[in-house]
Design goal:
20 helices; TIM Barrel; alpha/beta; 11% strand; binds flavin mononucleotide; three-stranded antiparallel beta sheet
Length: 445
Protein backbone atom coordinates (compact mmCIF):
# COMPACT_ATOMS: atom_id res chain seq x y z
CA UNK A 1 0.00 0.00 0.00
CA UNK A 2 1.40 3.26 -1.28
CA UNK A 3 2.90 6.13 0.73
CA UNK A 4 4.37 3.71 3.27
CA UNK A 5 0.87 2.77 4.49
CA UNK A 6 2.21 -0.72 4.08
CA UNK A 7 4.91 0.20 6.59
CA UNK A 8 8.08 -1.62 7.57
CA UNK A 9 6.35 -2.40 10.91
CA UNK A 10 3.54 -4.12 9.02
CA UNK A 11 5.99 -6.06 6.84
CA UNK A 12 8.05 -7.00 9.90
CA UNK A 13 5.04 -8.22 11.92
CA UNK A 14 3.87 -10.39 9.02
CA UNK A 15 7.39 -11.55 8.13
CA UNK A 16 8.25 -12.64 11.67
CA UNK A 17 5.02 -14.67 11.72
CA UNK A 18 6.00 -16.51 8.53
CA UNK A 19 3.93 -14.44 6.12
CA UNK A 20 5.02 -11.95 3.51
CA UNK A 21 4.54 -8.19 3.58
CA UNK A 22 5.62 -5.53 1.10
CA UNK A 23 6.79 -2.03 1.84
CA UNK A 24 4.50 0.48 0.07
CA UNK A 25 7.11 2.41 -1.90
CA UNK A 26 4.74 4.08 -4.39
CA UNK A 27 4.47 7.82 -3.85
CA UNK A 28 7.42 7.85 -1.45
CA UNK A 29 10.57 9.88 -2.11
CA UNK A 30 13.63 7.71 -2.80
CA UNK A 31 15.23 8.75 0.52
CA UNK A 32 12.19 7.39 2.38
CA UNK A 33 12.38 4.10 0.50
CA UNK A 34 16.07 3.85 1.31
CA UNK A 35 15.34 4.49 5.01
CA UNK A 36 12.77 1.69 4.87
CA UNK A 37 15.42 -0.62 3.37
CA UNK A 38 17.78 0.39 6.22
CA UNK A 39 15.13 -0.50 8.80
CA UNK A 40 14.36 -3.86 7.21
CA UNK A 41 18.01 -4.80 6.77
CA UNK A 42 19.16 -3.72 10.23
CA UNK A 43 16.54 -5.52 12.35
CA UNK A 44 15.80 -9.20 12.88
CA UNK A 45 15.86 -11.29 9.71
CA UNK A 46 12.48 -11.82 8.04
CA UNK A 47 11.21 -12.19 4.47
CA UNK A 48 9.70 -9.12 2.91
CA UNK A 49 9.46 -7.39 -0.43
CA UNK A 50 9.16 -3.89 -1.85
CA UNK A 51 6.56 -2.53 -4.22
CA UNK A 52 7.51 -1.29 -7.69
CA UNK A 53 4.71 0.63 -9.33
CA UNK A 54 4.79 1.30 -13.04
CA UNK A 55 5.12 5.04 -13.67
CA UNK A 56 4.53 5.61 -17.39
CA UNK A 57 4.45 9.38 -16.89
CA UNK A 58 7.65 9.40 -14.80
CA UNK A 59 9.91 6.66 -16.21
CA UNK A 60 12.98 8.17 -14.52
CA UNK A 61 11.40 7.44 -11.14
CA UNK A 62 10.98 3.75 -11.91
CA UNK A 63 14.58 3.57 -13.14
CA UNK A 64 15.86 5.26 -9.98
CA UNK A 65 13.87 2.92 -7.73
CA UNK A 66 15.23 -0.15 -9.51
CA UNK A 67 18.77 1.29 -9.22
CA UNK A 68 18.17 1.66 -5.49
CA UNK A 69 16.75 -1.87 -5.11
CA UNK A 70 19.69 -3.39 -6.99
CA UNK A 71 22.26 -1.34 -5.08
CA UNK A 72 20.75 -2.24 -1.70
CA UNK A 73 20.26 -5.94 -2.41
CA UNK A 74 16.44 -5.95 -2.41
CA UNK A 75 15.60 -9.40 -3.80
CA UNK A 76 11.83 -9.42 -4.05
CA UNK A 77 9.47 -6.91 -5.62
CA UNK A 78 5.75 -6.76 -6.18
CA UNK A 79 5.32 -5.19 -9.61
CA UNK A 80 1.99 -3.48 -10.13
CA UNK A 81 0.06 -1.20 -12.50
CA UNK A 82 1.95 -2.57 -15.53
CA UNK A 83 0.33 -2.92 -18.93
CA UNK A 84 3.53 -3.32 -20.90
CA UNK A 85 6.61 -4.42 -19.01
CA UNK A 86 9.56 -2.04 -18.84
CA UNK A 87 13.33 -2.15 -19.13
CA UNK A 88 13.95 -1.35 -15.42
CA UNK A 89 11.66 -4.22 -14.39
CA UNK A 90 13.48 -6.69 -16.67
CA UNK A 91 16.81 -5.31 -15.48
CA UNK A 92 15.81 -6.06 -11.88
CA UNK A 93 14.64 -9.58 -12.68
CA UNK A 94 17.68 -10.60 -14.74
CA UNK A 95 20.48 -8.95 -12.72
CA UNK A 96 22.97 -11.58 -11.55
CA UNK A 97 21.38 -14.48 -13.45
CA UNK A 98 23.80 -17.41 -13.75
CA UNK A 99 24.15 -21.16 -14.14
CA UNK A 100 25.18 -22.99 -10.98
CA UNK A 101 27.59 -25.94 -10.65
CA UNK A 102 24.70 -28.36 -11.21
CA UNK A 103 23.91 -26.61 -14.51
CA UNK A 104 20.66 -25.09 -13.26
CA UNK A 105 19.69 -21.48 -13.91
CA UNK A 106 19.88 -19.41 -10.74
CA UNK A 107 18.04 -16.07 -10.57
CA UNK A 108 18.75 -14.02 -7.44
CA UNK A 109 15.85 -11.58 -7.91
CA UNK A 110 12.16 -12.45 -7.79
CA UNK A 111 9.16 -10.57 -9.11
CA UNK A 112 5.54 -11.04 -8.11
CA UNK A 113 3.35 -9.48 -10.78
CA UNK A 114 -0.03 -8.07 -9.81
CA UNK A 115 -2.58 -8.10 -12.61
CA UNK A 116 -6.23 -7.89 -13.39
CA UNK A 117 -5.94 -8.69 -17.10
CA UNK A 118 -4.89 -11.81 -18.98
CA UNK A 119 -2.63 -10.00 -21.44
CA UNK A 120 -0.59 -8.56 -18.58
CA UNK A 121 -0.44 -11.95 -16.83
CA UNK A 122 0.85 -13.41 -20.13
CA UNK A 123 3.68 -10.87 -20.15
CA UNK A 124 4.68 -11.70 -16.57
CA UNK A 125 4.53 -15.48 -17.11
CA UNK A 126 6.56 -15.26 -20.36
CA UNK A 127 10.33 -14.83 -20.72
CA UNK A 128 11.52 -11.22 -21.02
CA UNK A 129 11.05 -9.76 -24.48
CA UNK A 130 14.09 -9.97 -26.74
CA UNK A 131 14.23 -6.18 -27.24
CA UNK A 132 14.85 -5.71 -23.49
CA UNK A 133 17.53 -8.40 -23.32
CA UNK A 134 19.34 -6.92 -26.34
CA UNK A 135 19.19 -3.47 -24.77
CA UNK A 136 20.61 -4.76 -21.48
CA UNK A 137 23.44 -6.51 -23.36
CA UNK A 138 24.22 -3.38 -25.36
CA UNK A 139 24.37 -1.38 -22.13
CA UNK A 140 26.71 -3.93 -20.58
CA UNK A 141 24.16 -4.83 -17.89
CA UNK A 142 24.01 -8.46 -19.05
CA UNK A 143 26.49 -10.64 -20.90
CA UNK A 144 25.20 -12.41 -24.03
CA UNK A 145 25.33 -15.68 -22.03
CA UNK A 146 23.19 -14.18 -19.28
CA UNK A 147 20.72 -12.89 -21.86
CA UNK A 148 20.50 -16.44 -23.20
CA UNK A 149 19.67 -17.74 -19.72
CA UNK A 150 17.17 -14.94 -19.17
CA UNK A 151 15.28 -15.98 -22.31
CA UNK A 152 14.45 -19.28 -20.59
CA UNK A 153 12.86 -17.92 -17.41
CA UNK A 154 9.52 -16.21 -16.77
CA UNK A 155 9.59 -12.56 -15.72
CA UNK A 156 7.55 -13.65 -12.68
CA UNK A 157 6.98 -17.11 -11.26
CA UNK A 158 4.17 -15.67 -9.16
CA UNK A 159 1.27 -13.62 -10.42
CA UNK A 160 -1.46 -12.24 -8.18
CA UNK A 161 -4.86 -12.05 -9.84
CA UNK A 162 -6.38 -8.94 -8.31
CA UNK A 163 -10.15 -8.56 -8.37
CA UNK A 164 -12.18 -5.60 -7.11
CA UNK A 165 -9.88 -3.99 -4.54
CA UNK A 166 -9.00 -0.78 -2.76
CA UNK A 167 -7.01 1.76 -4.81
CA UNK A 168 -6.36 1.22 -8.52
CA UNK A 169 -8.72 -1.49 -9.69
CA UNK A 170 -10.50 -2.74 -12.77
CA UNK A 171 -13.35 -3.79 -10.39
CA UNK A 172 -13.17 -7.31 -11.82
CA UNK A 173 -14.98 -10.03 -9.81
CA UNK A 174 -12.29 -12.32 -8.38
CA UNK A 175 -14.48 -15.39 -8.98
CA UNK A 176 -14.25 -14.73 -12.72
CA UNK A 177 -10.69 -13.50 -12.91
CA UNK A 178 -8.91 -16.14 -10.83
CA UNK A 179 -9.87 -19.26 -12.84
CA UNK A 180 -9.00 -17.44 -16.06
CA UNK A 181 -5.51 -16.57 -14.84
CA UNK A 182 -5.00 -20.10 -13.47
CA UNK A 183 -5.93 -21.60 -16.84
CA UNK A 184 -3.55 -19.16 -18.54
CA UNK A 185 -0.77 -20.21 -16.17
CA UNK A 186 -1.27 -23.86 -17.14
CA UNK A 187 -1.10 -23.05 -20.85
CA UNK A 188 2.06 -20.99 -20.45
CA UNK A 189 3.74 -23.56 -18.21
CA UNK A 190 3.08 -26.16 -20.91
CA UNK A 191 4.33 -23.86 -23.67
CA UNK A 192 7.58 -22.89 -21.94
CA UNK A 193 8.26 -26.01 -19.80
CA UNK A 194 9.85 -23.92 -17.06
CA UNK A 195 11.81 -25.96 -14.53
CA UNK A 196 10.18 -24.12 -11.59
CA UNK A 197 6.38 -24.13 -11.47
CA UNK A 198 4.29 -20.99 -11.91
CA UNK A 199 1.90 -19.90 -9.16
CA UNK A 200 -1.23 -17.75 -9.13
CA UNK A 201 -2.28 -15.92 -5.99
CA UNK A 202 -5.55 -14.12 -5.33
CA UNK A 203 -6.22 -10.62 -4.05
CA UNK A 204 -9.05 -8.11 -4.07
CA UNK A 205 -12.07 -8.63 -1.88
CA UNK A 206 -10.45 -11.00 0.62
CA UNK A 207 -10.90 -10.02 4.27
CA UNK A 208 -12.98 -12.83 5.77
CA UNK A 209 -12.36 -16.53 6.36
CA UNK A 210 -15.08 -17.31 3.81
CA UNK A 211 -13.43 -15.23 1.06
CA UNK A 212 -10.02 -16.74 1.86
CA UNK A 213 -11.48 -20.28 1.77
CA UNK A 214 -13.16 -19.56 -1.58
CA UNK A 215 -9.90 -18.30 -3.10
CA UNK A 216 -7.98 -21.38 -1.94
CA UNK A 217 -10.74 -23.71 -3.12
CA UNK A 218 -10.55 -22.10 -6.55
CA UNK A 219 -6.85 -22.92 -6.71
CA UNK A 220 -5.09 -19.82 -5.38
CA UNK A 221 -1.54 -20.62 -4.25
CA UNK A 222 -1.63 -17.70 -1.80
CA UNK A 223 -3.88 -14.79 -0.86
CA UNK A 224 -3.18 -11.05 -0.75
CA UNK A 225 -4.99 -8.53 1.45
CA UNK A 226 -4.78 -4.74 1.37
CA UNK A 227 -7.76 -2.80 2.69
CA UNK A 228 -7.95 -4.77 5.94
CA UNK A 229 -4.22 -4.30 6.55
CA UNK A 230 -4.67 -0.54 6.32
CA UNK A 231 -7.06 -0.82 9.26
CA UNK A 232 -4.42 -2.59 11.38
CA UNK A 233 -2.36 -0.98 14.12
CA UNK A 234 0.92 -1.41 12.20
CA UNK A 235 -0.29 0.44 9.09
CA UNK A 236 1.45 3.74 8.37
CA UNK A 237 -1.64 5.92 8.59
CA UNK A 238 -3.42 7.89 11.29
CA UNK A 239 -5.75 6.65 14.04
CA UNK A 240 -8.57 8.75 12.55
CA UNK A 241 -8.37 6.77 9.32
CA UNK A 242 -8.39 3.46 11.20
CA UNK A 243 -11.56 4.56 13.04
CA UNK A 244 -13.21 5.58 9.75
CA UNK A 245 -12.27 2.22 8.24
CA UNK A 246 -13.66 0.37 11.27
CA UNK A 247 -17.05 2.02 10.67
CA UNK A 248 -17.19 1.18 6.95
CA UNK A 249 -19.85 -1.02 5.45
CA UNK A 250 -19.55 -2.79 2.12
CA UNK A 251 -21.38 -0.12 0.15
CA UNK A 252 -19.33 2.71 1.69
CA UNK A 253 -16.83 2.78 -1.17
CA UNK A 254 -16.82 4.64 -4.47
CA UNK A 255 -14.65 5.20 -7.53
CA UNK A 256 -13.03 8.65 -7.62
CA UNK A 257 -10.70 10.45 -10.04
CA UNK A 258 -7.06 9.46 -9.44
CA UNK A 259 -4.17 11.91 -9.04
CA UNK A 260 -1.94 9.90 -11.36
CA UNK A 261 -3.33 9.54 -14.88
CA UNK A 262 -6.05 12.09 -13.92
CA UNK A 263 -6.26 13.43 -17.47
CA UNK A 264 -6.86 9.91 -18.82
CA UNK A 265 -9.90 9.52 -16.56
CA UNK A 266 -8.35 6.80 -14.37
CA UNK A 267 -10.18 6.20 -11.10
CA UNK A 268 -9.34 4.65 -7.74
CA UNK A 269 -11.61 2.92 -5.23
CA UNK A 270 -11.87 4.90 -2.01
CA UNK A 271 -13.78 5.11 1.26
CA UNK A 272 -16.90 7.21 0.75
CA UNK A 273 -18.35 7.25 4.24
CA UNK A 274 -17.39 10.23 6.37
CA UNK A 275 -15.74 12.20 3.54
CA UNK A 276 -16.75 14.25 0.50
CA UNK A 277 -13.66 13.27 -1.44
CA UNK A 278 -15.32 11.08 -4.10
CA UNK A 279 -17.81 13.79 -5.00
CA UNK A 280 -15.14 16.51 -5.03
CA UNK A 281 -12.58 14.52 -7.03
CA UNK A 282 -15.14 13.54 -9.64
CA UNK A 283 -16.29 17.14 -9.88
CA UNK A 284 -12.72 18.20 -10.69
CA UNK A 285 -12.59 15.65 -13.48
CA UNK A 286 -15.94 16.89 -14.81
CA UNK A 287 -14.60 20.48 -14.91
CA UNK A 288 -11.40 19.31 -16.58
CA UNK A 289 -13.47 17.63 -19.30
CA UNK A 290 -15.81 20.59 -19.77
CA UNK A 291 -13.47 23.62 -19.67
CA UNK A 292 -10.22 24.65 -21.34
CA UNK A 293 -8.92 26.74 -18.45
CA UNK A 294 -9.71 27.56 -14.83
CA UNK A 295 -10.90 31.01 -15.98
CA UNK A 296 -13.56 29.38 -18.18
CA UNK A 297 -15.25 27.73 -15.19
CA UNK A 298 -18.28 29.83 -14.09
CA UNK A 299 -17.35 32.27 -11.32
CA UNK A 300 -19.56 30.79 -8.60
CA UNK A 301 -18.06 27.32 -9.16
CA UNK A 302 -14.55 28.74 -9.12
CA UNK A 303 -15.35 30.41 -5.82
CA UNK A 304 -16.45 27.07 -4.33
CA UNK A 305 -13.24 25.40 -5.53
CA UNK A 306 -11.03 28.10 -4.02
CA UNK A 307 -13.00 28.26 -0.76
CA UNK A 308 -13.70 24.56 -0.06
CA UNK A 309 -11.23 22.52 -2.09
CA UNK A 310 -8.02 24.55 -2.32
CA UNK A 311 -8.66 26.91 0.61
CA UNK A 312 -6.50 29.37 -1.30
CA UNK A 313 -6.64 31.32 -4.57
CA UNK A 314 -6.02 29.18 -7.67
CA UNK A 315 -2.92 31.22 -8.60
CA UNK A 316 -1.40 30.68 -5.16
CA UNK A 317 -1.75 26.90 -5.47
CA UNK A 318 -0.35 27.12 -9.00
CA UNK A 319 2.73 28.98 -7.68
CA UNK A 320 3.64 26.12 -5.33
CA UNK A 321 2.71 23.46 -7.86
CA UNK A 322 4.85 25.07 -10.54
CA UNK A 323 7.85 25.14 -8.24
CA UNK A 324 7.31 21.49 -7.38
CA UNK A 325 7.22 20.52 -11.05
CA UNK A 326 10.22 22.69 -11.94
CA UNK A 327 12.21 20.55 -9.50
CA UNK A 328 10.67 17.19 -10.32
CA UNK A 329 9.64 17.29 -13.97
CA UNK A 330 10.25 20.73 -15.58
CA UNK A 331 8.60 19.74 -18.88
CA UNK A 332 5.23 19.63 -17.08
CA UNK A 333 5.63 23.16 -15.70
CA UNK A 334 6.77 24.50 -19.06
CA UNK A 335 3.81 22.89 -20.81
CA UNK A 336 1.43 24.35 -18.23
CA UNK A 337 2.90 27.83 -18.82
CA UNK A 338 1.84 27.47 -22.47
CA UNK A 339 -1.38 25.48 -21.99
CA UNK A 340 -3.98 26.76 -19.45
CA UNK A 341 -5.86 23.45 -19.52
CA UNK A 342 -2.71 21.61 -18.43
CA UNK A 343 -2.17 24.23 -15.74
CA UNK A 344 -5.70 23.56 -14.47
CA UNK A 345 -5.01 19.79 -14.51
CA UNK A 346 -1.83 20.21 -12.46
CA UNK A 347 -3.62 22.30 -9.84
CA UNK A 348 -6.45 19.76 -9.67
CA UNK A 349 -3.82 17.05 -9.27
CA UNK A 350 -2.34 19.07 -6.39
CA UNK A 351 -5.66 18.70 -4.57
CA UNK A 352 -5.88 15.00 -5.43
CA UNK A 353 -2.38 14.27 -4.18
CA UNK A 354 -2.68 16.36 -1.00
CA UNK A 355 -5.95 14.62 -0.20
CA UNK A 356 -4.07 11.34 0.26
CA UNK A 357 -1.51 13.06 2.57
CA UNK A 358 -4.07 14.68 4.94
CA UNK A 359 -5.42 11.32 6.21
CA UNK A 360 -1.89 10.01 6.79
CA UNK A 361 -1.14 13.02 8.98
CA UNK A 362 -4.58 12.81 10.65
CA UNK A 363 -5.31 16.44 9.73
CA UNK A 364 -8.77 16.86 11.32
CA UNK A 365 -9.40 20.15 9.53
CA UNK A 366 -9.30 18.27 6.20
CA UNK A 367 -11.38 15.25 7.21
CA UNK A 368 -13.99 15.88 4.50
CA UNK A 369 -11.22 15.74 1.87
CA UNK A 370 -9.63 12.48 3.01
CA UNK A 371 -8.70 10.22 0.11
CA UNK A 372 -8.52 6.78 1.71
CA UNK A 373 -8.09 3.91 -0.71
CA UNK A 374 -10.37 1.12 0.31
CA UNK A 375 -12.31 -1.76 -1.23
CA UNK A 376 -15.58 -3.44 -0.27
CA UNK A 377 -13.61 -6.13 1.59
CA UNK A 378 -13.22 -3.64 4.45
CA UNK A 379 -16.98 -3.63 5.08
CA UNK A 380 -17.05 -7.43 4.82
CA UNK A 381 -14.35 -7.65 7.51
CA UNK A 382 -16.20 -5.22 9.78
CA UNK A 383 -19.40 -7.22 9.38
CA UNK A 384 -17.54 -10.45 10.28
CA UNK A 385 -15.79 -8.83 13.26
CA UNK A 386 -18.95 -7.18 14.63
CA UNK A 387 -19.56 -7.90 18.30
CA UNK A 388 -16.06 -9.35 18.82
CA UNK A 389 -12.83 -7.89 20.20
CA UNK A 390 -11.76 -7.22 16.57
CA UNK A 391 -14.42 -4.54 16.29
CA UNK A 392 -11.99 -2.20 18.06
CA UNK A 393 -9.37 -0.63 15.77
CA UNK A 394 -6.75 -0.94 18.56
CA UNK A 395 -7.19 -4.74 18.63
CA UNK A 396 -6.57 -5.21 14.93
CA UNK A 397 -2.99 -6.33 14.68
CA UNK A 398 -2.01 -7.67 11.28
CA UNK A 399 -0.97 -11.13 12.47
CA UNK A 400 -4.17 -11.76 14.44
CA UNK A 401 -6.23 -10.66 11.44
CA UNK A 402 -4.25 -12.78 8.96
CA UNK A 403 -4.21 -15.84 11.23
CA UNK A 404 -7.97 -15.58 11.65
CA UNK A 405 -8.43 -15.57 7.88
CA UNK A 406 -6.13 -18.56 7.40
CA UNK A 407 -7.37 -20.66 10.31
CA UNK A 408 -10.97 -19.84 9.46
CA UNK A 409 -10.39 -20.77 5.81
CA UNK A 410 -8.90 -24.12 6.86
CA UNK A 411 -11.86 -24.89 9.12
CA UNK A 412 -14.37 -23.92 6.44
CA UNK A 413 -12.61 -26.11 3.88
CA UNK A 414 -12.93 -29.13 6.21
CA UNK A 415 -16.58 -28.37 6.93
CA UNK A 416 -17.19 -28.13 3.21
CA UNK A 417 -15.62 -31.57 2.72
CA UNK A 418 -18.05 -32.94 5.32
CA UNK A 419 -20.97 -31.32 3.52
CA UNK A 420 -19.82 -32.87 0.24
CA UNK A 421 -20.06 -36.26 1.94
CA UNK A 422 -23.69 -35.61 2.84
CA UNK A 423 -23.12 -34.63 6.48
CA UNK A 424 -25.35 -31.79 7.63
CA UNK A 425 -23.27 -29.00 9.18
CA UNK A 426 -25.19 -26.70 11.51
CA UNK A 427 -24.84 -23.01 10.50
CA UNK A 428 -23.60 -22.34 14.06
CA UNK A 429 -20.59 -24.61 13.40
CA UNK A 430 -19.84 -23.00 10.04
CA UNK A 431 -19.54 -19.56 11.60
CA UNK A 432 -15.86 -18.78 12.19
CA UNK A 433 -15.79 -16.52 15.26
CA UNK A 434 -12.84 -14.12 15.56
CA UNK A 435 -10.19 -15.66 17.80
CA UNK A 436 -7.41 -14.02 19.76
CA UNK A 437 -3.78 -14.50 18.88
CA UNK A 438 -3.37 -16.79 21.91
CA UNK A 439 -6.32 -18.94 20.85
CA UNK A 440 -4.86 -19.20 17.36
CA UNK A 441 -1.34 -19.96 18.51
CA UNK A 442 -2.07 -23.71 18.56
CA UNK A 443 -2.38 -23.61 14.76
CA UNK A 444 0.60 -21.35 14.09
CA UNK A 445 3.32 -22.57 16.43
C1 LIG B 1 -4.48 2.17 0.88
C2 LIG B 1 -4.10 1.26 -0.23
C3 LIG B 1 -2.97 1.55 -0.97
C4 LIG B 1 -2.55 0.68 -1.98
N1 LIG B 1 -1.40 0.95 -2.68
C5 LIG B 1 -0.93 0.05 -3.56
C6 LIG B 1 0.33 0.24 -4.20
O1 LIG B 1 0.99 1.25 -4.01
N2 LIG B 1 0.79 -0.72 -5.02
C7 LIG B 1 0.07 -1.87 -5.25
O2 LIG B 1 0.55 -2.76 -5.95
N3 LIG B 1 -1.13 -2.07 -4.69
C8 LIG B 1 -1.63 -1.16 -3.83
N4 LIG B 1 -2.84 -1.37 -3.23
C9 LIG B 1 -3.55 -2.65 -3.48
C10 LIG B 1 -3.19 -3.68 -2.40
O3 LIG B 1 -1.81 -3.95 -2.43
C11 LIG B 1 -3.95 -4.99 -2.58
O4 LIG B 1 -3.60 -5.60 -3.81
C12 LIG B 1 -5.45 -4.77 -2.54
O5 LIG B 1 -5.77 -3.83 -1.54
C13 LIG B 1 -6.17 -6.07 -2.27
O6 LIG B 1 -7.56 -5.89 -2.28
P1 LIG B 1 -8.41 -5.46 -0.98
O7 LIG B 1 -8.27 -3.99 -0.89
O8 LIG B 1 -9.79 -5.89 -1.29
O9 LIG B 1 -7.82 -6.19 0.18
C14 LIG B 1 -3.31 -0.50 -2.26
C15 LIG B 1 -4.47 -0.75 -1.52
C16 LIG B 1 -4.88 0.11 -0.52
C17 LIG B 1 -6.13 -0.21 0.26
Amino acid sequence: MANGISSTQLAEALGLAGMLGFYGAAGQPLEEVEKAIDRVQSGPAFSCGFNLINSPSEPALETALVDLYLRRGVRLIEASAYINLTLPLIRFRTAGIRRNAAGEIEVPNRVIGKVSRTEVATRFFSPPEDKFLKELVSRGELTPDQAGLASKIPVAEDVTAEGDSGGHTDNRPLVNLLPTIIALRDRLQERHSYSAGLRVGAGGGIATPEAAAAAFMMGAAYIVTGSVNQACVEAGTSGIVKKLLAAAEQADVAMAAAADMFEMGVKVQILKRGTMFAMRANKLYEYYRAYNSFGEIPAEMRAVLERDYFRAPFEEIWGGTREFFLRRDPAQAERADRDPRHKMALVFRWYLSQSSRWPLAGDESRKLDYQVWCGPSMGAFNEWAKGSFLEQPEARDAVTVAHNLLAGAAALTRLHALRCQGIAVAPRLARQEPQTREQLSRFFA
